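Pipeline run #58 for the internal structure catalog. This entry was flagged by the ingest filter as a single-chain record with no existing model, so it goes straight to prediction. Upstream metadata was stripped on purpose; only the residue string is passed forward. Reviewer on rotation: M.T. Logging verbosity set to normal.
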Amino acid sequence: MEDNYARLVDPYSGSLISALQLAGRPRWCAYSSKRDQFLVNIREPAGVAILEPESMPQRAFLPISIAGPHGLDIDDKNGLAYVACDGGAVIILDISTGHEEAVVPIGGGPDVIWLNADRHRLYCAIGKPGIIEVIDTQRAIVDEKVNTEEGVHTLAFDKKKAKTIRVSS
């Protein structure tokens, strides 16, 4: 859907509980169980909307400095959001204050990211040139680059086994 709405749907009945018009096009969404809130990347204006899960009012909008928020993951323990942006960077964002703790340059426009909070690593799939960049979240640097092939822009992370799988299209 490209109507810039967030919709809360009952998973059992499929019925719409509530809907909220967002400031721009949503790209990715994540849920913080610790804070009981949804975070939604908004492409433009570049930022993260924080939504209340019961009736979906917007609690806050956190603007960010890099264009095109895309991939999103949450470190609930430390209150951080990781926002991978089309502008070629990952922003480490304090969810409570909206402060950008760090901006980590990456090698292209990202798609999916996954956090391994236990190992302090963020895996970022970049379809062009076909790499997965591994970011050390404590030092806020790219620690490793794994060459894949062009078009690999999707990955999944198994937290129990600490392994990733990548998919190309």
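catalog note: The chain has no helices and 16 strands.
catalog note: Residues 54 and 162 are 33 Å apart (CA to CA).
status: ready for reviewer M.T.
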